[in-house]
């Protein structure tokens, strides 16, 4: 898979505090050191719709915010992700559709609606779902403080954890290629190597 001339698209998702951003950058360095051209990105994107989504996350809720995030996702794909994949790069995004399926459920949006508005978005070649026990996730959330209004809700870390478990099963049933990794007692470097090894296995299969 790593030798693909068209490049690759990898998404990294998981509960807040599980190490998504660190994993993205560590994996990028690992693949770059092995000679691959890598492009990292994140959602919300740095584009104009992503900037609006970040600005309004604390004040706009439910369906309206879900649609704004979906609009940013399609724009992100068209303007940044797919052009880099087509140029032969490995694109790694910090958060993608799994994030939407979890966080927007926490915001009261029907999951079927979330699936529908994201139905035309490109599936990644590999969707990495980072996991950790609710206790570990809760501790990290306490240490870092809530990132947005949804993480201020009582028991938000446990609810988010359960949603990610459900979403992982949904993704697999929908035909996504998913790698779930328990990060409770695993270093970021180990996680990055696990992802690299999964990509190499897919290439040789």
From TrEMBL:
Family: Belongs to the thymidylate kinase family.
Reactions listed under catalytic activity: dTMP + ATP = dTDP + ADP
Matches recorded under PANTHER family: THYMIDYLATE KINASE (PTHR10344), UMP-CMP KINASE 2, MITOCHONDRIAL (PTHR10344:SF4)
Name assigned to this protein: Thymidylate kinase
Organism this protein belongs to: Actinomadura physcomitrii
InterPro entries: P-loop_NTPase, Thymidylate_kin-like_dom, Thymidylate_kinase
GO MF terms, alphabetically ordered: ATP binding; dTMP kinase activity
Coiled-coil blocks: none
Keywords: ATP-binding, Kinase, Nucleotide biosynthesis, Nucleotide-binding, Transferase
GO cellular component terms listed in the entry, alphabetical order: cytosol
SUPFAM superfamilies: P-loop containing nucleoside triphosphate hydrolases
Origin organism lineage: Bacteria, Bacillati, Actinomycetota, Actinomycetes, Streptosporangiales
């Amino acid at each position: 898979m790593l030798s693909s001339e068209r490049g690759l698209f990898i998404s990294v998702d998981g509960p807040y505090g599980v190490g998504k951003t660190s994993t993205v950058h560590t994996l990028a360095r690992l693949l770059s050191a092995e000679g691959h051209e890598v492009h990292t990105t994140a959602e919300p994107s740095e584009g104009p719709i992503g900037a609006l989504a970040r600005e309004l996350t604390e004040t706009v809720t439910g369906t309206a915010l879900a649609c704004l995030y979906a609009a940013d996702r399609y724009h992100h794909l068209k303007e940044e992700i797919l052009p880099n994949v087509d140029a032969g790069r490995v694109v790694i995004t910090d958060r993608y559709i799994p994030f939407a399926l979890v966080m927007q459920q926490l915001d009261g949006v029907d999951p079927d609606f979330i699936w529908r508005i994201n139905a035309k978005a490109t599936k990644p070649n590999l969707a990495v779902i980072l996991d950790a026990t609710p206790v570990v996730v809760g501790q990290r959330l306490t240490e870092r403080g809530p990132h947005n209004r949804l993480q201020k809700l009582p028991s938000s870390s446990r609810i988010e954890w359960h949603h990610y478990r459900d979403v992982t099963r949904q993704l697999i049933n929908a035909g996504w290629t998913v790698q779930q990794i328990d990060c409770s007692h695993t270093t970021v470097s180990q996680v990055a190597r696990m992802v690299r090894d999964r990509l190499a296995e897919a290439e040789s299969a």
